[in-house]
Amino acid sequence: MTTAYWCVLIAIFLPYLATGAAKFFGAGYGPQANSDPRAFLAGLQGWRRRANNAQQNAFEVTPAFAAAVLIAHQVGVAEQLLLDQLAVAFVVSRLLYFVCYLADWGPLRSLVWAFGMAMIVALFVVSA
Prior knowledge:
Protein name: MAPEG family protein
CATH architecture: Up-down Bundle
Main location: membrane
Subcellular location: Membrane
Oligomer: single chain
Organism: Pseudomonas fluvialis
Keywords: Membrane, Transmembrane, Transmembrane helix
Structural class: mainly alpha
Largest sheet: none
Radius of gyration: 16 Å
Distance between the termini: 22 Å
Shape: elongated
């Protein structure tokens, strides 16, 4: 399995890092909240609310990243190292995005988001 494929697996689990932070690094989450976790998450404030927002964004972008990696492999991108580097850069951007979201660094978060999207576009471009 290539590094890029491993990055898809990592990207699939990154949203759970964010939701774990939102749920478990603060008071209030327990059996009662677990019966309706979406309602619990919707009522959060501050950094925990931002962690939940980061989770939702991660779920939105991961399918596009996975598709880009799969397509790049399917068409046989000549330089596997480039494909792997783009995939790793995407995963790193998502980790930085999570940090920026928690820290409430809106403008930097937007730049990191744009970089991650650029990595998805680059995967498609190298596949063309």
